[in-house]
């Protein structure tokens, strides 16, 4: 058993990829559970036949000798022909016997549609475990159980229980932890004549999970864009590695990952019987991995359509042109919120367009070609060619008021094609103002209303909001690929330990309470090179005065007690103490105040510490996600951070440049950069400090549950910063 397991690990992902290939390209298929009375399995059988799958098709049912013209056998082993794929849709209790039959008959891949496994309470989990063990023992790949089938448009294997009106093979593939999405996703794509690659519903993922399928689709050449609906990530490390694999190959993943809200979390729970990880961590992880996260199926479709482009924009500069002044006006207002930049027309472009434009035309980006443009091919030609070839734009979008039809033989179609050919570096896109109308024949003149435009693999985008979001995602993905650093792989921080690791663990374990005192915490910060205050503990007023004299005035004094987490709340902090005498007084004042607030708390004494010069305060902290490890957050505002909610999140590993870009994304970035006559702060120092902090967090991820450095004070003179407080809560041990 053990050796078997080791061999499997060694064969690694390549093994899984090869095995999944057997599922999508079997030489023959047997459907177990099909019946002359109809049902799930029979619907699958009918579809496979209808769409003309090229291999042999068999049914297995002891009661019949044929079902709908398909030969039927009493068992798999009775089939006088090798069986590539067995699709099983019978009650779960009958499955073990069929699996034995599969092994005996040399079946090469299995899909189990049936439910009654881990998604159900009681015996379900045990049944699923035996299924997993069977798959591991035999090496036969199993998809499901509790799934809704799969399809491969390329070989017309439509092993799903509902039918489509049309089919077109193409580059958008899907991995779905949901059955219904097969139709919500695929039907609109097909209605728009956008080609489908392979689609799989993964069910309970007893043997093959989302990570395996991502890996497979990365390697498989027909797939250009991987779409995914995901409720749970079963094996975070494998998932991360699969996404990194996709990024290495430049193959985009567009994903709906549910679990943003508590109610979605509960729905996901009920649906799959497994937990959804914390959303902030997932969001940060997906960003780091370059996975494009969307919230709705409409956005999934539009984004996958945009990412189907064989081109990647070189920058964010977008030009938009349309015959519709309305589109142009709306877009000008909308530009900011869609995350797309519309830089103004360069002077030479304006000069060129003045020659052909009517007097009343307004030359700007977005550009209104006016209704007259529709009749004057010179206007169309000159405008598109100027926008495409001027070098000022990375993307040119044609805004179309007619929702879904663009005949490429028309004057406009030809002009677009010419402009696109003249500017191979520029990404072209046609986008309709309104979305979702592609399935309605608006005019009997057009027998089948469908988007016809298609530039370098990018179909006609539908609707301004989803369309622009999709373009923004395309631009963002290209940026991700350009800026990605091979050294900052999320997977590489698994198990990574710095030279300080053992000392750090010792400091944490030495602390007696569940919460480290500020001084204990700061020892840990100092170990990793974070700048902290000089300080010492006083147990009496005289001692406080003596310590104060060894520091520069003014000083700060704070109560020290492992039981008091928020010192200010109990009158435990006094700032700006100007003299030794006042320090002695402050000692008594703090002791009296804390005792009156918290008579039961054990007080170790009062810390006397140097006072940092006032300047912007930063909150720096981390939580530890069970799936993705440390999640580093920082924001402006010290105690105001929660009210301001101006926080950036980063997952290690990252470097100072990554932190600098994250600082730039803070709404309050300008304050730090010295806007409005304020002094510049030490952002290099801050970035360095956050990188060191991430090393600390990666090291102690198994030891601590939460860490807050609130605040780090940035010196107003532009050099230096100091962590003046530190709160560390140990990880709760299991069973404690
Ligand atoms: P609390 O436990 O209440 O968070 P802190 O140690 O953070 O206590 O102190 C409260 C506030 O006092 C801080 O947010 C910061 O503004 C200020 N402060 C604390 N220590 C210092 C210091 N050494 N230098 C300057 N300001 C300080
Ligand atoms: Mg504090």
SSE inventory with pairings:
Layout: H1 2-24, E1 28-32, H2 40-50, E2 56-60, E3 66-67, E4 70-73, E5 85-88, H3 95-105, E6 109-112, H4 124-138, E7 142-143, E8 150-152, E9 157-159, E10 169-176, H5 181-191, E11 196-201, H6 210-219, E12 225-230, H7 236-249, E13 253-257, H8 262-272, H9 279-289, E14 292-294, H10 297-307, E15 318-322, H11 325-334, H12 347-356, E16 367-368, H13 370-373, H14 377-389, E17 395-400, H15 411-422, E18 427-432, E19 454-455, E20 458-459, H16 464-483, H17 501-510, E21 515-516, H18 518-527, E22 535-538, H19 541-550, E23 555-560, E24 573-577, H20 580-597, E25 605-610, E26 617-625, E27 629-636, H21 641-644, E28 647-650, H22 656-665, H23 669-672, H24 683-699, E29 704-714, E30 721-723, E31 727-730
Parallel strand pairs: 1-2, 1-5, 2-4, 5-6, 6-7, 10-11, 10-12, 12-13, 13-14, 15-16, 15-17, 17-18
Antiparallel strand pairs: 3-4, 8-9, 8-11, 19-20, 21-31, 22-25, 23-24, 23-25, 26-27, 26-29, 27-28, 29-30, 29-31
Helix pairs in contact: 1-6, 5-10, 6-7, 10-16, 12-14, 14-15, 17-18, 19-20, 22-24
Bound molecules: adenosine-5'-diphosphate and magnesium ion.
